Amino acid sequence: MGKIERFTNGTTGGPVFVYVQDGRIIRVTPMAFEESDAPSWQIKARGKTFSPPRKTTLAPYSFSYRSMVYSPKRNLYPMKRVDFDPNGNRNCEKRGESGYERISWDEAGDIVTNEVKRIKREFGAGAILSTAGSHHLWGNVGYRHSAYFRFANLMGFTYADHNPDSWEGWHWGGMHNWGFSHRLGIPEQYDLLEDALKNTEMIVFWSSDPEATNGIYSAFEHTSRRQWLKELGIKMVFIDPFYNHTAGMYSDKWFAPRPETGNALACAIAFVWITEDLYDKDYIESRTVGFEKWKEYILGKEDGLPKTPAWAEVETTIPAREIRALAREWGAKKTMLAAGGLGGWGGACRAASGNEWARLMISLAAMQGMGKPGSNIWSTTQGAPCNTAFVFPGYAEGGISGDTGNSAAGFRWVYRMFSFDQPTSTSINAPMGQHIPRLKIPECILDGKYEWRGKGFCGPSIESQFHKYKYPADGYPEIQMYWRYGGSFIGTMCETNRYVKAYKTDRLPFVVNQSIWFEGEVKFADIILPACTNFERWDISEFANCSGYIPDSYTQCNHRVISLQKKCIEPLGESKSDYDIFAFMAEKLGFYGPYTNGGMKDLDWVKRYFEASELPDHISWEEFFKKGYFVVPMPEDYRPTPALRWFAEDRPKDTPDWGPHPETQEEFGKGLQTTSGKIEFDSSSLRKFDPGDEERPLIPKYITSWEGHHTTYLYNKYPLQMISPHPRFSFHTMGDAKDSWMNDVKDHRVLKEDGYYYWIIRINSKDAEERDIEEGDLVKAFNDRGAVILAAQVTERVPPGTVHSYESCADYDPLGQPGESADRSGCVNILTPSRYITNNSAGMAPNSCLVQIEKY
Amino acid sequence: MKKYNMIIDVAKCHDCNNCFLACKDEYIENDFLPISIAQPWHGHRWMDIMRKERGQYPQVDVAYRPTPCMHCDDAPCMNVCKEGTVYKREDGVVIIDPEKARGEKGLMKACPYGAIWWNEEKEVPQKCTFCAHLLDDGWAEPRCVQACPTGALKVVHTEDAEMKKIIASEDLEIYLPETKTNPRVYYKNLYRFTTSFIAGSIALQDTDECAEGAKINLRKGSKSLVSNLVTNNYGDFKLDKLPEESGDYTLEIAYEGYQSKSLTVNLEKSINLGTIFLAPS
User: Fold this and answer.
1) Chain B contact probe: residue of A3, A63, A254, A802 with most B CBs at under 10 A
2) Cα of A27 to nearest chain B Cα, Å
3) Interface mutation target, options B25, B49, B201, chain A, most CBs of A under 10 Å
4) A851 by DSSP, 3-state: which?
5) pLDDT tens digits for A559-616?
6) Percent with pLDDT over 90 in chain A
7) How far is A399 from chain B (nearest CA, A)?
8) ipTM confidence
9) pLDDT, average across residues A310-321
10) Strand ranges, E, within A42-168
11) Looking at the partner chain, which of B41, B151, B210 has a beta carbon nearest the beta carbon of A321?
């Protein structure tokens, strides 16, 4: 046996040490720091000193990477669907059914090249549709904003714009009350850990489960901080239809409103505060506008319906007396509202009621003087002390594409990275080009036309989400080819039998799928291009640094850790890094030079990153290359600037947050992005757009869901409300299925007698008893949109009437005709509605979903 | 002589499975002879995480009990095995010799904790080794402990006399003490797994308000006081650490200005009595 070497790498679940022996990965662990690494911060609060552990934490799925690298479901060779003949019969309707045959890279490259050239010649590059999964394997060079955009921009393509799937209600709703468009409607979170440790008396977690969702990319960095808060005696209340895992650890009280009715609870809390004089009137007077109008609505003067706790009890099932008790306690204590898992986000924002939920969260926090000591919207995940001045970019800052158009923060980085060379962009993916919304790819392919408002992530301004689009754009062609890249939408989007049907038609003549694993959507490709994992290529990255629309996202971490992602092993089989696949294709397509910037390899780009960052001021390339990671030191004179304190105190902004754009403000750096510069209960942006939009009214309201307990016709047939939050044991489709060890996690999948690992749905004991369902039984969950076979977990963690199953199954395994039969791999997304949150809010609403369940 | 012990705090485990997965990462497809041969790709749970839900909606709690090999000082597997198949190292760690134990399927049944797993392909019983190969290599802790983000798993490397003090001062328990195997794995807050609670909410009939500060007394039968507390601002109470299936209790509720109430509760497993309304006196 050869010597064991320890390399460094980075994953979506944290940076890692990778142990390699004889060309094989044998172990993956979190990082432990050395004495010589930069010292950790300290916070002194309430007579105690708090300092984080001298190591990194790692998300569960990152411990199973070795099983994914060596998964039997790896795409190891270029493949061609057996009955696909690009020069003859394409048999598009057989996609998903026929098998594959191995071909050479040259054959695959030639087929794809001939098709791209033919389509460009006959239709134009706009006829090439392409998009990526929400998340890629970690690494700034390999990430989708980077190598993928550099290649695709040069080839030309119509990008299927991503809806802001984690932001939704904050983006389409919350943004209209307080701006923050450069964060897609969620707030800054700077230094709120210290503020909370010093000042907070209670935390209300509302649709928030950071122990399960890890903020974003930040593993369990904040777990010790929640333990500190608990040790200080800070009360923790949870509002979630699911008794979630953070609640399981810390909950002093759990409220489970019926799904889609949490907004009634929010209105009733406001009612108690108004009628019992439990809110910050000075703040409302000086820092907000439109409160009086909203107050009329809450008190029932607008619609004759006072939003009393008794009224809310009928909607939510939570007793009125408990709503009053919660409102009184909240009104009396300095409270952090942990709305969502990041400071914003949360399953509640991905629902028909999502817009109004985000707006009501902002409204409640405003009534309690948001920004004053101890009182804010803060989810315990971001806001650790941090050196934000140190320049190292997140993956969404343009990468090696230099494409600033698809990232809010690109302007900061690109000019350091491309001082002498060429960034890339494509006119087709500019606002004046052609677009397709990811959620409506099937409609665009099958119907050939679609209209909507808002191009994906509408970060540039509040107004940009009102912009009207249509497919095909005037003068642009219909889609002829789909270059799918990573992930599977069948397990991550909504009503996903649609995607299957869109593949099985000759309206889509050619499909390429570039992917590491043979996941659910890959089996609909004509040509498969095998990519390798981040352990098989060079890259560079920082722990939890995505930036883009989450500026300074690394404040989730206890230390800023930048790692060299060393190529630990050679790519398996004939798989290649995405960078190399694109270089190979660029050569065939004739733009190798521009793509590789004159022949650069991935390691050359890594070095370019290093040099453009502030790393060379602290460590030499040689030393960094050898050691593999760097811990960014804290400034000696660190001075905390708590989020929104400046706003509460009506001072110029003093936090590191770089938005909003000066053009949106009367006085740069002062006030919020709204027209008034204040929190707007009565939204000026919505007034300017459409004051008559009853689905998204000027003031936040309780609007009954278009798929909930009031939609009687559906509810009688499908009496269970299913919530499908972001998953705990996979990251989108990473980690799940592919014969990974995650399949053995008891709360992720259940192994049945037939040797199959079934996805779990959680059902209350009463609902289970009525249906003769016992723990572990196979059940069929269904509605008019389809059916999924799942394993039942009988539990008290959901109230009667609610069922819970995570989204993000990586596989797709129909029992019969694809797109028409029940899936047994666990894509509950087949059941969720594809309807937009509102007609003018092009976001997904998977948590507005009625189903029936029966024993299978 | 310092020996290894593990302390598992049930109250700090939220089932993230990092321990379970780190164990898989360490052992699957990796041989560490003479300590261990590779764990099969699927199926084994050298760290087995057990779930326990208590109560009924909405007064519930959920606990998880990570269960490794207990590295017992009087390990039943050592008693039933052929000479030398299972041995205890000087540092307290129990090892099944992967060569000598071939075919010894009987070892599985000997373990009262179900901690021994059968490798079908290699025909060998396998279990947690406390990552002895790593400890021998200078590691301070096994992979599961290193991976634990909540501090639920801890390693204590100390003299047995010192460990005794820790057991007493931290109120540690062993799981299944009746088996008398002298485990080296200790639990904190094991009551979340082994005992039950009586919970409920007190409300006032006339005002429909939560009764904060109501006095609750729990008596065994009608006599001795078992437990008492006052309700919180939601009127909630939870009387915990009661033995399962411990029979009849009397629950007395008193709140000034309201008629007292007395209920008989037959405790089988944890129960949420729901809302109890008090009438004005």
Assistant:
1) A63
2) 6
3) B25
4) strand
5) 999 999 999 999 999 999 999 999 999 999 999 999 999 999 999 999 999 999 999 9
6) 93
7) 31
8) 0.97
9) 98
10) 43-45, 48-50, 79-81, 100-102, 128-132, 158-161
11) B210
Cα maximum dimension of chain B = 76
End-to-end CA distance of chain A: 50
Residues 6+ apart with CB under 8 A from A568: A7, A9, A18, A20, A25, A535, A536
Chain B residues with CB-CB distance to A741 below 8 A:
21, 24-25, 28, 41-42
Of A37, A161, A165, A657, which residue is the catalytic one? A165
- Who contacts B130 (Cβ-Cβ below 8 Å, separation ≥6)? B4, B6, B68, B69, B71, B93, B142
pTM of the model: 0.98
Give the Cα separation of A99 and A81 in Å (integer).
Answer: 6
A206-232: pLDDT as tens digits: 999 999 999 999 999 999 999 999 999
The minimum CA-CA distance between B275 and chain A, rounded to whole Å, is 10
Tokens of B29: 């497809």
Q: Give CA separation, B223 vs A651, B218, B229, B269, in Å.
A: 65, 9, 17, 21
How many CB contacts within 8 angstroms connect chain A with chain B?
131
B257 touches chain A (CB under 8 A): no
With CA atoms as reference, the chain B residue closest to A227 would be B150
- Asked if B42 is an interface residue toward chain A (Cβ–Cβ < 8 A), one would say yes
For B87-138, write each residue's pLDDT tens digit: 999 999 999 999 999 999 999 999 999 999 999 999 999 999 999 999 999 9
Burial B186-223 (b: 16+ CB within 10 A, else e): bbbbbbbbbbbbbbbbbbbeeeeebbbebbbbbbeeee
Checking if the pLDDT of A666 tops 90, the result is no
Is A135 part of the annotated catalytic residue set? Answer: yes
> Is-contact A243 A797, C-beta < 8 A?
yes
| CB A428, CB A412: distance < 8 Å | no
Q: Which tokens sit at A442?
A: 């099937």
Kindly tell me if the per-residue pLDDT of A450 is higher than 80: yes
pLDDT tens digits, residue range A109-151?
Answer: 999 999 999 999 999 999 999 999 988 899 999 999 999 999 9
Which of B49, B55, B147 faces A796 most closely, judged by CB atoms? B55
Is the Cβ of B267 closer than 8 Å to some Cβ of chain A? no
Q: Helices (DSSP H) in chain B: which residue ranges?
A: 18-27, 76-80, 106-110, 132-135, 143-147, 160-169, 191-194
> How many angstroms separate the first and last alpha carbons of chain B?
67
Give the least confident one: A161-165, A224-228, A412-416, A444-448.
A412-416
In which residue ranges of chain B is pLDDT below 50? Answer: none
* Exposed / middle / buried, residue B116 (Cβ in 10 Å: 0-12, 13-18, 19+): buried
pLDDT of amino acid B223: 80
Annotated active-site residue A777? The verdict is: no
Q: Which of A530, A522, A465, A526 is nearest to A489 (CA)?
A: A522
Say how far apart CA A513 and CA A490 lie, in whole Å. Answer: 14
Active-site choice (A217, A395, A469, A718): A395
Count of CB atoms situated within 10 Å of the CB of A395: 26
Helix (H) or strand (E) holding A787, with range, is strand A786-795
CB B82 within 8 A of CB B125: no
pLDDT at residue number A408: 64
Distance between CA atoms of residues A88 and A95, nearest Å: 16
B20: chain A residues, CB-CB within 8 Å: 744-745
A139/chain B closest Cα distance in angstroms: 22
Q: Is residue A165 annotated as a catalytic residue, yes or no?
A: yes
Residue A211 CA to residue A249 CA, distance in Å, equals: 9
Name the minimum distance, in Å, from the CA of A549 to any CA of chain B. 28
The distance between the two most distant Cα atoms of chain A, rounded to a whole number of Å, is 80
Contact A245/B275, CB-based, under 8 Å?
no
Cα–Cα distance for residue pair A119/A375, rounded to 1 Å? 57
